[in-house]
Amino acid sequence: MKKVGVAILGLGVVGGGTYKILTEKKEYFKTTQGLDVTVENVLEKNIDRATALGIDKSIVATNIEEVVSNSNVDIVIEVIGGVEPAKTFVMKALMSGKTVVTSNKELFAKHWSELEEEAKKMRVGLFFEASCVGGVPIIRTLQEGMQANKILSIKGIINGTTNYILTKMSLEGSSYEEALKEAQRLGYAEFNPTADVEGFDATYKLSILSSLAFNAKVDIENVYREGITSITKEDIACGKELGYTLKLLGIGKNSENGIEVRVHPTFIPNSNPLATVNDSFNAVHLVGDSVGEIMLYGRGAGALPTGSAIVSDVIFAAKHHEYYYAAFENSSKGNKSTKFVSDFVSQYFIRMTVKDEAGVLSKYSGIFAKYNVSIKEAKQIAGVEGKVSTIIITHACKESALRKAIEKIEELEIVYSVDSVIRLED
Ligand code: HSE
Asked: Does CATH place domain 138-300 in 3.30.360.10?
C-alpha cells in the first residue's frame, strides 16, 4: 500500500479539523483509497494546542526547517493563513520538493504566480481546493468537471460571515451592528471583521475562481469591491417588500466585451436559488455554454468542512503524478492582454427621501430619462412632515449613466437624500 507522509503547518481551527480527519479516518483511507496517510509533523508553537488534539510531542516541530528536511514528509499542508510567514514556509516546502496543499486564499490570490512558478520548477503539486468556499468542491468542479464548457458566469455567496449578518438582518430585522455582534459572539466574524465585511475575503476567492472559470489571470486589482457596512435594515426591508433578498455576491461574467468581476451587496429576486442560501452557508452558481446552470451549496468555513477539502487535495495529490498548473498565462504580465469591463451594466435599487408635493416624481424621472436610465418599478412609502420615501428599481443600464443621474438628482431641491444605491441581478 502506498504510504503518504504529511505535515500540517498551523493547528488552528482548520489545522485541528484536518488532523482529526486524517487520523480518525486512517483505516478508512486505506480501504477506500489504498493509501496509508500518516501525519509525520505538525508545525505549531503552542504545544498546548497539540496536546489538546492528542498529538504526540515527538512530531511537533517548532521551525519550518525541521519539517522541510523530514524525508518522510511528501505533502505539506499550510493552514496558517495570511501572507507571512505562510508564504516563506510554502516556498521553502516547494523548494524542498514537497507538494503543498493550502487553504490560504489571501496568499493564493496575491502570490499564485510565484508559488506556481516554483512548483513547476520543482515538478511538485500545488493544491488549493480549501482556499475557496471551504468544503464545497468548487475548484475541482472548475478544473475537472467543466472542460466541455466555456463558462459564461459565476455568481456566488462566497463569504459565510456576511451571509450570516445579512440573513439575520433580513429574517429578524436586526441592525447591521446587532447582527455583526452576534456573528462575533458565534465565532463567525473576527474581532476585527474588516476582511469579511468589507468584501476582501470574497475578493480573494473571486479572483481565484474567476481565473479558473475564465482561463485568464484575474488579479485582485481587477475585482471591483464593495462591502456591507453601509447596508441598513431599511434597505433590506424595502427590498423585501418588492420581492428581493440582499446578498453579498461575488459575480464574474465572461462575454465578448471582456471579463467583469465584482463583489458587492446585490438584491436578487426571491425566486433566485441563491436567495434561499441562508446563515453562514455558501453557494456558487455557474453557467456553462454546454451544461447550462449548476449550483454547489455547502459550508464555506469550519474545521471539518475545510478539513474535508484539504484532505481531498492530499488524496488527489497522492494518487496523481501529473499535477495541474493553471491553463492560462499565470504570471504578473498574464492579464495584460485580457480585456476587463469596468463600466458594468446592472439593474439598480435606489432608495431616496424626497418632498411630498406635486411634480416631484416628474423631476427625478426626467433626470433618469435624460441619462437613459429606464425605471422598471417605483414605490412611494408615505412618510411624515412632508417627506416621502421612494424606492426605484431600474432596468439594466450602464453604471456610469446611473452615477451621473444620481449626482444630478442629489442636486434637486425636492430631494432630501439619496439613501442607498444597490445593484440588482435577476
Ligand atoms: N471568513 C470566511 C467566511 C471564512 O466568513 O466565509 C473562509 O474564508
From this structure: yes
Q: What is the DSSP string of 213-226?
A: HHTS---GGGSEE-
Judge if the beta carbon of residue 300 lies within 6 A of ligand 1: yes
pTM: 0.97
Q: Give yes or no for residue 104 CB within 6 A of ligand 1.
A: no
Return the domain boundaries, the chain: 2-134, 138-300, 345-424
Superfamily, domain 345-424: ACT domain (3.30.70.260)
Would you give per-residue pLDDT tens digits along the chain (426 residues)?
Answer: 999 999 999 999 999 999 999 999 999 999 999 999 999 999 999 999 999 999 999 999 999 999 999 999 999 999 999 999 999 999 999 999 999 999 999 999 999 999 999 999 999 999 999 999 999 999 999 999 999 999 999 999 999 999 999 999 999 999 999 999 999 999 999 999 999 999 999 999 999 999 999 999 999 999 999 999 999 999 999 999 999 999 999 999 999 999 999 999 999 999 999 999 999 999 999 999 999 999 999 999 999 999 999 999 999 999 998 888 998 888 866 667 899 999 999 999 999 999 999 999 999 999 999 999 999 999 998 778 889 999 999 999 999 999 999 999 999 999 999 999 999 998
The CA distance from 213 to 150, in Å, is 8
Q: 166 alpha carbon to ligand 1 midpoint, in Å?
A: 14
Dump strand ranges (E) for 330-386. 345-355, 375-382
8 A C-beta contact, residue 75 and residue 317:
yes
Q: Does the beta carbon of 301 sit less than 6 angstroms from any atom of ligand 1?
A: yes
| Farthest CA pair distance, the chain | 83
How many whole angstroms from 161 Cα to the centroid of ligand 1? Answer: 6
Query: Known catalytic residues?
Result: 205
> How far does residue 302's CA lie from ligand 1's centre (Å)?
9
Q: Determine the distance from the C-alpha atom of residue 205 to the mean position of all C-alpha atoms in its chain, rounded to a whole number.
A: 4
Query: What residues contact residue 352 under an 8 Å CB cut-off, 6+ apart?
Result: 364, 389, 390, 392, 409, 415, 416, 417, 418, 419
The residue whose CB lies within 8 Å of the most ligand 1 atoms, and thus the one to mutate among 161, 280, 299, is 161
What ligand 1 atom has the least distance to the C-alpha of 163? 5
2-134 is classed in which CATH architecture?
3-Layer(aba) Sandwich (3.40)
Cα of 122 vs centre of ligand 1, distance in Å, is: 31
> Which atom of ligand 1 is the closest one to the Cα of 195?
1
- Tell me if 418 sits within 8 A of 367, measured CB to CB: no
Would you say the CB of residue 219 lies under 6 angstroms from ligand 1? no
